[in-house]
Amino acid sequence: MKITDKINLLLLELLTNLPAPRNSALSASLDQLIKSAALKAAAVSGALSLPAGALALLTLLPDLVAVWKIQAQLVADIAAVSGKSNQLTRETLLYCLFGQEAMASEDLVVRIGQRFVVRRSSQKMFESFLGKLGLRIGRNLLGERVARWIPFVGAAVIARYSFNDTAKVGQTARELFGAEIEIK
Predict the structure, then answer these.
(1) 3-12, 25-34, 73-82, 127-136 — most confident range
(2) Where are the beta strands (DSSP E) in 103-174?
(3) How far apart are CA 173 and CA 70, in angstroms?
(4) Which residues of 154-164 are buried (b: 16+ CB within 10 A; e: fewer)?
């Protein structure tokens, strides 16, 4: 099985099984939730990036999956804190996780003034979009493979990237769930 096929399956599973918000999140501020998730993602990525050489390549997919799960939980928690758990859909989760780098997600979630319009997608359309996204992610992994060959320095770079990426996901979720959302 090609790596892009594995990525597509992992994405489909992640976006189909929406996480429930944690009860502990309801008493936290959005800033606390975002910082905590970003630190957790950085720790996971940094630790999984410590092995060097060929062994490092075996940690690529587990690292991606672990960070995506942390980020998906963050989005679910932000939706709950914002009082919009019922508006957490696979499309809004996809937008929060990949909206920054996946231009096609704008077809699913569009900002119009102070509100967002979310278009529900058919399973076939959703899987097609995930296939394109999986290809992009697979290409991005090439750069990460190079960083994993450099002991410690590569782990620090990857940890920082995961921190920043998770913080960006949190900000996107804050913006989305802080606005009016219309689901069509």
Answers:
(1) 73-82
(2) 109-112, 115-118
(3) 13
(4) bbebbbebbbe
**Amino acid at the residue 58:** L
Residues 70 and 63: beta-carbon distance below 8 Å: no
What's the pTM value of the predicted model, to 2 decimals?
0.87
Q: Show the beta-strand stretches assigned E in 51-131.
A: 109-112, 115-118
- Residue 140 vs residues 20, 33, 162: alpha-carbon distances, Å: 29, 27, 13
d(CA 108, CA 112): 13
Separation CA 130–CA 58 (nearest Å): 23
Please state which of the ranges 46-55, 99-108, 174-183 shows the lowest mean pLDDT. Answer: 99-108
Q: Which residues contact 46 (CB under 8 A, 6 or more apart)?
A: 155, 156, 158, 159, 162
For the segment 109-152, what is each residue's pLDDT rounded down to a tens digit?
A: 888 888 988 888 888 887 877 877 877 776 666 555 555 556 67
Tokens of 121: 């997608």
Nearest to 104 by CA among 135, 138, 67: 135
